[in-house]
Amino acid sequence: MSGMVGGIQAYQGADIYELSPATREPKWARYTILGLSLAFFAIFLLMPLLAVFVEALRKGWDVYWQAITHPDTGAAIRLTLLAAAIAIPLNLVFGVAAAWCISKFEFRGKQLLITLIDLPFSVSPVVAGLVYVLVFGAHGWFGEWLSEHNIKIIFAVPGIVLATIFVTFPFVARELIPLMQAQGTDAEEAAVSLGASGWQTFWRVTLPSIKWGLLYGVILCNARAMGEFGAVSVVSGHLRGQTTTLPLHVEILYNEYQFAAAFAVASLLALLALVTLGIKLFIEWRSA
Question: Which positions ≥6 away from 100 have C-beta within 8 Å?
C-alpha cells in the first residue's frame, strides 16, 4: 500500500512538473528576464522620478521653498484641490448609482450606458476640452446666452471643474461594476425578504461589501483629477494665479525657463503620486 501511495504521489508530482514548464527554464534565463524587467523599471520609471527631485533641489532648499510657497503656486494648489473636491463626490455618486443599476438590474440601453461610461477612456482629453469650448465658449452654442446672463464657464473655474469631471468620470463606476456583478444579488434579495428597505439594504448590505473597491476607485479618481493636463489646458486660458492648476503652473514655469521652480512644483505632483500609490497598495492588501 505504501508503495502504491508513493507511486501516486510521484505521478502527481510529475504531472505538476509537466504543467509548470516555466520551472524547467535554466537559471540564467530567469535571471536575464528579471534583470531586463528591473532595468526597464529603473530607466523608465525610477530615474525620471529621481530626476524630478534632484532638479528641484539642485539650487538648494531656499529656492525650492520659495517656489512652492509662491502665491501663484498656492493659487494653483487651491484650484487643483477645488476641482478635485467637486469632481470626486459627483463621480462617486454617479459611479455607485451606475454600478448599482448595471449590476443589479436588466433594462433597455444597458450596453449603451456601459459604452458611455467608457467614453472618456476613448476620447482624447484635448478633444473633450475643445467640445466644451464649442458648447460654452464666447462663440459657442450657449455663448451668447451665457454672456447675457454674465455667466463665465470657459477660461474660468467652472470650465476647469467640468473638464475634470469628464476625465475622471469612469473610474469609480469601472471599479465597482465588475465587483458588484461578481457578488450577485443574493445578499440584497435576502435582506429585502427579511423586510429591509432599499436604503437599509444599500447601507447595511451592499456598501460594506464594496467599500474597499469604492475607496480604490476614489483614489484613482483623485489622482487623475489632480494630474489632468490636456482638457484643463484647453478650457483654462492659462491665466496665472486664476485658472492654472498645478500641471499648468509647471508648464508656465518651464516655458519661462524657470527650471528649478518648475521641477519644485512638479515634485509636489510626484509626492502626490507616491502617496496615491501607497494608499492603493494598502487598499489592495486589505481587499485581498
Answer: 180, 202, 206
**Residue 246 grid coordinates:** 498645478
Q: What is the DSSP letter of 172?
A: H
* AA letter at 193: S
Distance between CA atoms of 157 and 7, rounded to whole angstroms?
A: 74
Phi first, then psi, for residue 127 (nearest 5°) are: -65, -40
pLDDT, tens only, 54-98: 999 988 899 999 999 999 999 999 999 999 999 999 999 999 999
Between 14 and 116, whose confidence is greater? 116
Which amino acid, 98? A
The rounded distance, in Å, linking the Cα atoms of 118 and 116 is: 5
Ranges of H-type helices in 105-242: 110-117, 119-122, 125-136, 143-148, 157-167, 171-183, 186-193, 198-201, 207-227, 230-236
Distance of CA 80 to the CA centre of its chain: 15
Distance separating alpha carbons of residues 98 and 94, to the nearest angstrom: 6
Residue 229: which residues within 8 A CB-CB, separation 6 or more? 125, 247, 248, 251
Do residues 207 and 282 lie in contact, with contact meaning Cβ atoms separated by under 8 Å?
A: no
State the burial class of residue 27 (Cβ atoms within 10 Å of its Cβ: 0-12, 13-18, 19+): exposed
CA distances from 32 to 24, 42, 106 (A): 15, 15, 50
pLDDT band at 284 (very low <50, low <70, confident <90, very high): confident
Q: How far apart are CA 124 and CA 142, in angstroms?
A: 23
21: confidence class by pLDDT, cuts 50, 70, 90: low
CA pair distance 157, 161, nearest whole angstrom = 6
**Per-residue pLDDT tens digits for 158-185:** 999 999 999 999 999 998 998 888 888 8
